[in-house]
Amino acid sequence: MHDHAEASATGAANIPDSRGINFFTSDPDLAALLRLHLGDAPYRRIEPELDALGLRASSELDRWASRADRNPPQLQHRTRRGEPLQHIDKHPDYVALERVAYAELGLASMSHRADPPPPLVKYALTFLFVQAEFGLCCPVSMTDSLTRTLRRFGSPGLVERFLPLLASRDFDVLYQGAMFMTEQAAGSDVARIATRAVRGPATDGGANWRLYGDKWFCSNADADLAMVLARPDDASPGIKGLALFLLPKTLPDGSRNHYRIIRLKDKLGSRSMASGEISLEGAHAHLIGEVGRGFQQMADMINMSRLSNGVRAAGLMRRAMTEALHVARHREAFGRKLVDMPLMQRQLLKMLVPAEQARSMFMRIALLLAQADAGDESAARCVRILTPLIKFRACRDARRVAGDAMEVRGGTGYIEEWSDARVVRDAHLGSIWEGTSNIVALDIARAVKREQALGPLRAFLRETLAGAALPDSSAAAFAHALARVCDTMSAVAEQGDDAQVRQAGSALYHVTTAILMASEGMRLAPDYRRLALAHLVLRHKLLPVDPLALREHADDADAFAALLNDRPVSLQAAMRLAGGAGAAA
Fold first, then answer.
1. DSSP type of residue 341
2. For residue 75, is pLDDT > 60?
3. What is the largest CA-CA distance in the chain?
4. Helix/strand/coil for 565
5. pTM of the model
6. What backbone phi and psi angles, to 5 degrees, belong to 243?
7. Rounded distance between C-alpha atoms, residue 288 and residue 127, angstroms
8. Cα dihedral 477/479/485/489 (nearest 10)
9. DSSP letter at 255?
10. Which helix (H) or strand (E) holds 236?
11. Integer Cα distance of 240 and 342 in angstroms
């Protein structure tokens, strides 16, 4: 009996469990980067909140998220007496998560209060929260983006009426937002939207338009407000005929607006959050801006949602990395820790590099977004092209990183009791919603050709390189790669070479993130971890590689071990990872 108990305890000890660790303090790069980008005093003001959220995300929030994932929302069409009800029952744990996100953290309202913090603060909190719960982050992002769009394009009366509700942190009062755009025949091809908008007599609430049609994929289906694209009857065909409308769930007299949720989607991931099909049956709606400008106005909302998608992809990759590193550092096989085995080190580094690329990218976009919103046109153009870049590449990377992390845990990782399976399912969503990879890659080319965004980005990256004080060989290698990539991206966009746009877009993402990480690495000296990561991007993503040229593991071993065990990397070790970068320049 004693032997059996001892064996059971030994077996349990060989299955490392990360629950209860702090996702903030166990990720030292997050604190270092936030302090670097925000400044010491602003960072210290938010550090207690980040620390508290990091602990909750790995324990209480993660348990709630797991149960909400297993108990998806249910649509109740009618009361037992047959009266129309249209109510979505959410699991209590999902509602608890809503309280944390909307009321306690204020993630949806943070940017819309009188004294908003920098956007990076909101995205840093989202980065931690999504490591516990992914599905809810979509409604939170849409509420934030809808509020931004309403403030930019809505009439003063609409803003005055709805902004206090959207910006509230009182859970019993606040409004949630959504975006109803997709139709069966009009997915990525927005020009084919067929939903009709008919002007009617003004109501007490001023909603003098009626909407008719079917929307095929509406997430946060019972949101209090939704932005809807529709086509007025007398408008032009194509994108130029679209208008943007604000659709309230309830009318001023308290009755429900004239649309029905037909059914909820049975989704692969984000199962905790209600996505449904909606039939608009003369629903009252408010026109936002001008008829014919609907898509352009909605595009701003979509772009902010795409940025949020990139932040969520970065967060999912970090959760996957945290799990994989925890297993590798604590599990033994064949007399060694997994993290000390060369093959495992290579697998983990192939996960760590894209995770850190996405992190540097979303942080830099957040910083540029603040400048853009303050009127900096060059920063606005950089945001315009960087946002589809992170949506295109990071969301695809998250799928692979999540799958590789599951493999590190082995067969146990395939079991739904652990987070790995849920993270894998959720990771597949990012490269579909808000535009599939092909559509978003084409949008990168559109930002280059139509909106001249590549020039400002190239100038920004050159300036970043010039101010980084890199070793000469590294500086030359990055500058050479930047020139080649920008020339290629420009040629692909100008020639309309759609077949090459993914390859060129990926290269632009890689060179951008490499330069950002190299700059961060020099500013965080004497720890050159991020310079080491930048050199790995250069070596494996941007330079020619002979697949049969073997490299001595000993050349990389010290740097690999430091990167995977959160130890500082020396400049010498970081430079060894540059490989033939200097020669390539």
1. S
2. yes
3. 83
4. coil
5. 0.95
6. -130, 155
7. 31
8. 180
9. P
10. none
11. 57
